[in-house]
Amino acid sequence: MMTFREIFFELHTYEQGEFYLALSSEERQQLYRYLSPKELADLFDGIEEEQEDVEQLLKEMDSSYAADMLSYMFTDNAVDTLNQLDKKDVAMYLSIMEPESAKEIKNLLHYEDDTAGSIMTTEYVAIAADQTVKSAMAYLKEAAADAEIIYYIFVVDEAGYLVGVISLRDLIVNDDQALIRDVMSERVISVKVGDDQEDVANTMRDYDFLAVPVTDYKNRMLGIVTVDDIIDVIDEEAASDYSGLAGVDVEEVAENPLHAAKKRLPWLITLLFLGMSTATLIGHYEALVSEASILAVFISLITGTAGNAGTQSLAVAVRRLAMQEDDRSFIRLIFSELVTGIITGLITGLTIMVIVGVWKHNFTLGFVIGMAMLCAITVANLAGSLIPMLMDKLGFDPAVASGPFITTLSDLTSVLIYFSIASLFMSYFIG
Amino acid sequence: MMTFREIFFELHTYEQGEFYLALSSEERQQLYRYLSPKELADLFDGIEEEQEDVEQLLKEMDSSYAADMLSYMFTDNAVDTLNQLDKKDVAMYLSIMEPESAKEIKNLLHYEDDTAGSIMTTEYVAIAADQTVKSAMAYLKEAAADAEIIYYIFVVDEAGYLVGVISLRDLIVNDDQALIRDVMSERVISVKVGDDQEDVANTMRDYDFLAVPVTDYKNRMLGIVTVDDIIDVIDEEAASDYSGLAGVDVEEVAENPLHAAKKRLPWLITLLFLGMSTATLIGHYEALVSEASILAVFISLITGTAGNAGTQSLAVAVRRLAMQEDDRSFIRLIFSELVTGIITGLITGLTIMVIVGVWKHNFTLGFVIGMAMLCAITVANLAGSLIPMLMDKLGFDPAVASGPFITTLSDLTSVLIYFSIASLFMSYFIG
């Protein structure tokens, strides 16, 4: 069996994880016999907890083996794993685990989802300011094995306050006898434990950090967020924006159509009812349609085009909101969308006016369609930028104002505009 | 002025950049007098070249000052900056620059966009296998100042082949007298220079790397890609997927509505012509609508709902394609979307059948609407998953099959389905 272990440990922990996940449940039982909890923990540190059935994996193991493994994982990853389990299982594993590890995990478990606290880890390297570079390096050699990242070393005073930071790069190039206090940077960029994970991601992206310290509201050091976790956050947020725009959870793991249908139907049915208002509205104009059936021909063209324009406007607005621009710039954005709507509406309206005029030899009809197009696009652009902003102000995620919602709403306004304009010319159509 | 420099260099280079960009052109002229090209280069390394008018900024500077600054920047960033300029300006700066730097930049400039080569940098630390840990550390101290990242050290033989890698963490914990050859990892995960940047991002994300070596097709070391560049790639790809879904470039910098309209109109007008087909199609049924104007009432409800379902399906398909799944899983996806379409279509169709039946006291009409809804949703789901797959097979970016395109196309199929079914019951409607 030595040979298997030799080959297995030639692999990177990520590859070990891929191998492990590809095994059958019976084969994994074999593996548990050959790997120590610590070795399995290294592998588990590389698994995307949210995309795998970790609950099932842990249940396959002997409970104390699983608890041991969890205690050897980096605390942030252990917490992510435990967050996939039932509360009673979490309590069970924590009770079997050695108290020290259980305590560290419990300290992190209670942080709210999507905050810095929920993604930080406590395995960082902290030193005192009044030691030399040499002694710090000696300490680092000891601490390296247990730390998630050793390339930033944090300087903390006796009371736990974060007072400085030094990169390993600076540590290496400085003189052995220099005092940390003299070579550290006292201006530390840190994030608060309750900060939104998206803000943490923005900070790390702007500053090109590999890790950022997390402090409480009194600037006491609590942990660090590392860049690999931030990449997961960026992926998550991108998927959530994308899902929002489409009105569907694109991360849905299940290939199971029944499950997929169940997740998509709430939106479809909700929007069906909104669509019913549009139908009711058209119903009010049924007499007009009956007299001038040509009007029916252009309903979907007008609603469709306005919906497309509204979707464009929505996407730009949601994106801008994600970039945290201030109120003034947002009023500018809405004004800009209004003008963009008028310009695109004018050009699209003129185009359709000419086409309809020539096609149907009827420029009055062309004018009605073109005019309706102009107004409908302008309103759709306005709605596409205003609605996500209002949702943001009201504390909702603006990405929830999905494309389907905007197009369905824009159907309603477009139909209203179209038939209102057509009614003005009613005498003309009905003769 | 010493005071200004003191305050200025207290700032992180990212903050220096923000400060610099906020200055007026005249104020920046002052700054150029107080900062050396090297100091400005550190600041420029932190600027997002694609989001700023770097052409303008460089033109403000004395040409030789600008060329000096470019030569002090990390090569990948200098290349990104030069890629924003006209070819003749690039040639000009390269000719003023000292030949060594110009050569390094030219080596990177010719790599195709969106490949590993286009985002890599050449400032990495390379050592030989037959030296001791101690001598490697001594070399590292020298090299640290010029390297973009020193936390992975690459082992390269005389011919330039990549033969190993060792992390600074391992270097530190190993014995001073150990030979690099004995402590390095010989199994190096690397990417090829022509690899797509998205694949490079996937590798770095999976392995949680801070940097990955880039080699040519003979495994000769060419450079490294660092995690900060990968974060930019992930952002870029996410923005491009999001833009695709909305049929608009959400990265459009300009707040200028005229500019925005110009970028959005091509899609809108193209889709307007596709929408014209739908109008023409309805035109064929004008006689039917004229007799049974109630049919017009439900056009937008059916096209809208099917469009929403198609958008959901599209988003799921594009996302799966981005994850590079194999052909078999894709056929499964299309089958799954078909079944999902039938299930959601059945439930939505039944709902609307009951509503219309009760509302209009007319269950035959309800049946027609419900049946049309079922078929239209199924077809939209199928189109939403099939079309991006076909585009991918034909070598186009599947994300270009935007939501607006799918909804507009789905308008056409939905109308066709709706009126075909209604025609079958024509005798009933016309009586």
Number of helices of chain A: 23
Radius of gyration of chain A using CA atoms only: 30 Å
The SSE order of chain A reads HHHHHHHHHHEHEEHHEHEEHHHHHHHHH
- In CATH, what is the class of the largest domain in chain A? Mainly Alpha
CATH topology of the largest domain in chain A: Tetracycline Repressor, domain 2
Overall tally of structural domains of chain A: 3
- Principal-axis shape of chain A: elongated
Largest interface by Cβ-Cβ < 8 Å: A-B, 104 and 105 residues
Short description:
By secondary structure, chain A is mainly alpha-helical.
How does this structure look, described?
Two copies of one chain form a homodimer. By secondary structure, the first copy, chain A, is mostly helical. Chain A has three domains: 108 residues, MgtE N-terminal fold (Alpha Horseshoe); 110 residues, CBS-domain (Roll), CATH 3.10.580; 174 residues, SLC41 divalent cation transporters, integral membrane domain (Tetracycline Repressor, domain 2, Orthogonal Bundle). In chain A, 68% of the residues lie in helices and 6% in strands. In chain A, the strands form two sheets. Chain A has a three-stranded mixed β-sheet. The first copy, chain A, has a three-stranded mixed β-sheet with strand order 4-5-6. The longest helix of chain A has 33 residues. The first copy, chain A, is elongated. The interface between A and B is large, with 104 and 105 residues. Chains A, B: Keywords: Cell membrane, Magnesium, Membrane, Metal-binding, Transmembrane, Transmembrane helix, Transport.
